[in-house]
Amino acid sequence: MVAWTQHALRGRGVEGSVAVIEGPGDGARLAQQALTGGADVIVAWGGDGTINSVASAIVNTPAALGIIPAGSGNGLARELGIPVIREAALAVALTGSNRAIDAGTLNGHLFFNVAGIGFDAHVAHVFASTAGRRRGLTAYASTTIRELFRYAPSHYVVSGDAGRVTREGAALFISMANTRQWGSGAQVAPNAKPDDGQLDFVLVDARAPVVFLAQLWRLYNKSVARIGGTVMARLLEVSVTATPAAPLHVDGEPIGMATEIIVRVLPGALRVRVPRQ
For 180-205, how does the pLDDT look when each residue is reduced to its tens digit (9 = 90+)? Predict the structure, then answer.
C-alpha cells in the first residue's frame, strides 16, 4: 500500500507523505500532524472506522478529507459516490470537488455516517471482538443473525428536538443517520442527506427475532419505514435514557455502554473530496 501510494503520487506530480495506522488513535494523531504541516487534503484509506478517526481530527478546518474505501461496508464512501477501485478513488481525492457535509456527535463521539444504540451497536461490539477472523458481508450477516436470537433489548425513553418527537418502550435499535446506509447497500434511513443540517432518527420496536428477520429485505429496497413499529423523523438533537445500559457505536465502531445518551448534529462540519459533476 505505501509503495503503491508513493508511486501514484509521484506519477501525478503531487507532494505528499504516506503513514500507516497501526493502532487506536493513530488516525487522528497522524491527521493532526498533517494539518500542522499545512496539508490541504488528508486521505484516509480503510473502512468507516478508519475514515471516522481521520475525519474527526479535521472537522471545522480548511482541510478536505479524501477517501479510499477498503472496509466491509464502506457506507460513507458509497453515499458520496466515491469509487471502490483504489486508482479511481485516489484520483477523486486529488482532483475532485470539495463537498461540505454534516457530522454528528453521540455523547461527544463524532460520526459522519450512522451512529447507533442497541442491537446494531451490539453487533458492532461482537464483530470488533473477532479481530483476525473472517471479515466481509457474509461474516457480518451471519453474526447479525446469530446475535439476534441472543440479544435482550433495552427499554428507552426518547425525546427529540425538545420534545417534538417522544417515544417510550423496548426497542431493537435506534439509529441516528447522516447518510442513508449502514453499508453494503443496507439503507436504514432511505431519505437521509449528508448535507441537510439534520440527522434522520430511526427507531425499530423490539420484536421476535424471526419476525424481524422476515423483514430484513426491506433494508435493501428502501422500505424500512414499513417494518411494523418503526418511527422515523428528521431531528437536530435527541436525548435517550436506556434501561439497562445500551451498547453504542459510531460509524460501526463500538464505544461502550451508556444509560444517558445525547446525539446532536453539526451542520457542514466536514469537507470531503467527491467526484466532479
Answer: 999 888 899 999 999 999 999 999 99
Strand partners, 200: 177, 234
- What size, in residues, is the chain? 277
Buried b (16+ CB within 10 A) or exposed e, 86-120: beebbbbbbebeebebbbbbbbebbbbbbbbbbbb
Residue 163 grid coordinates: 420534545
In percent, how much of the chain has pLDDT > 70? 97
With contact defined as beta carbons under 8 Å apart, do 59 and 253 qualify?
Answer: no
Q: What's the gap between Cα 246 and its chain centre?
A: 18
Helix, coil or strand: residue 10:
helix
CATH number for the domain running over 2-101:
3.40.50.10330
Residue 142's identity, in one-letter code, is: S
161 touches 236 (CB < 8 A): yes
Distance CA 16, CA 41 (A): 9
Q: Could you tell me the fold of the domain covering 109-267? A: Tumour Suppressor Smad4 (2.60.200)
Domain ranges in the chain with CATH number 3.40.50.10330: 2-101
Residue 49, helix vs strand vs coil = helix
Model's pTM, two decimal places?
Answer: 0.93
Residue type, 28: A
DSSP 74: B
Judging by beta carbons within 10 Å of its beta carbon (0-12, 13-18, 19+), is residue 273 exposed, middle or buried?
buried
Is the preceding peptide bond at 190 cis, omega within 30 degrees of 0? no
